[in-house]
Structures are given as structure tokens and as C-alpha cells.
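PROTEIN DATA CARD
Card holder: Lysine exporter LysO family protein
Chain length: 299
Origin: Aliivibrio finisterrensis
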Amino acid sequence: MLSGMLFVFLPLLFGYLIPLHKKQPLQYINAATSHLVTVILALMGLSLAALDNLAQNLNQILTITTAFFICISVCNLAILPIMDKLFPLNSEGNKNTLPLFKMILESAKLLLAVAAGLLFGLISGIDLSWVEEASELILLILLFLIGIQLRNSGLSLRQILLNKHGIIIALVILTTSLIGGLIAALILDIPLQHGLAMASGFGWYSLAGILMGDALGPVYGGAAFLNELMRELVALLLIPTLIHRYPVTSIGYAGATAMDFTLPVIQNCGGIRCVPIAIVSGFILSLLVPFLMLFFVSL
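Structure generated from the sequence above:
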């Protein structure tokens, strides 16, 4: 877990140490960030194509995934828009609201990149063992560029590290996700502690799948993986569509991924002022994932 945190914060830190005194280099960086987001989404599609066959117990996995995804998402999205009203966020995106069609089009472009990668991976038959390392490398570059953007955004270090919105978002996602997990457990008639554990992934699909698989078997592991992956995919749709009017909702629904994978999308669609909020909320949720999951499965 510590190495994962360093993986995220070191490139951000190194980028933050670089001041830029001219606008043109920053414009190039903004364009590069946008293009790299598309590339990493395509790689995500390739990684989906490389997954082992989930045909065994697939029906049970999909049933558990559907129940948890719907219950947790409904609980999250029932409260997050209220937080937008109570704690309004003045982001760059709010000042430059795009027409609804253009916002949907931006979301479609992001999902199309994932679909294109998935389709290519399935029909090409090429070796995909390199995809994970390539994704990590590009993510490092993205985080480095975002660090440069942060340094030259006019935000103070205090605004970046200590952010009221970020803390509130993390608490709301934590509370509503656990409530959703309890509801799903009651619907599926499974132990409540298993429901709480399943609800504690907050979008970190790789770790959630591993921890739940080790503790409760491959069915729960596969369901945890798909549940958190669905959160990330839906977040990719929500962020460009809603962040201009509902920034707290968009950042909050991204969960732990707001600190890393969806961070470039948040920055690209909502503006650099959304980045500190996403980092703080994502960091808190990422920190909680292994502790909460291991605690609940041990009950």
C-alpha cells in the first residue's frame, strides 16, 4: 500500500517543483495530458481483454456484482448532489459550462477509447502481457504533468493538501457505500460483514478483487473486481457530463480512483482547481480500502 501511495505522490511532487514562466509550454502540457488520457483508456480496454475467463460461476458473480453496484451507486448518488448544494465548489468547469450534447460526446469519446482497446485486444490475438506496465508508465507521466499544472495554477500548497471538500467527499462516500453494502447483503441474504467488506473497495478494483478473492473465494473476488471496475467506468461517463454542474458528485463517485486513474480526466474536464479535492478524497479512500476490507472479512 505504501509503495502505491509513493507511486502516485512522487511524480506529482516532482512535477510540482517545476515552475513555468511562459504560457506556451503550459498549453503544450495541457494538450499532452488530454491525449495521454485517451491512450491510457485504450490500454485499460486492452487489459480487460487480457482477463482470465470468468465463465465459471459467472452467473453468481454477475448477480452479486449487480446487487452491490446498484445499491452502492444509488446510496452514493442520493447524497452527493446534496453536498454540491451545501458545499458548492467554484471550479473552472462551472465557469465554462458546455452544452449537454458536447458533455455527453466527451463521455462517449472516453468510453469509446476503452471499447476500442477491448475490441482490438479480443480480435488481434496479440500478447498483452506488456499492457499493465505500459499503463503504469503513462500514468506516471500523466501525474508528473498534473504536478506541473498544479504548480502553475495559483493554488497554494495548503489548498492542495488540506482541503475541506476532499475530506467531506471521502466521508460521504465511506458512509453511503457501507450503507449500500448492508442493503445489498440483505437482498442477497449473505452475512452483513461480507456486504460491508464488498462495499469497502471504493473503486480500487485490483486490490479489492485480490483481497476478497483471498478471503472469501473466487466468486467474491470476481464480483469485487467487476463491481469496482463498473464504478470506474461509470465515473468516466459522469465526470465529463456532470462535473461542470455537480463537481462534488463527479469527484466523489470516482472514489479512490480520483487520486490516480480518473484524476487526469477530472483535471481535463473540471479544471485544475478540482485536482486538490480529488487528491485528498482519493487518498483518504485509498488508505481505508485495505484496512476496512481486512477488518470486515475477519469478523
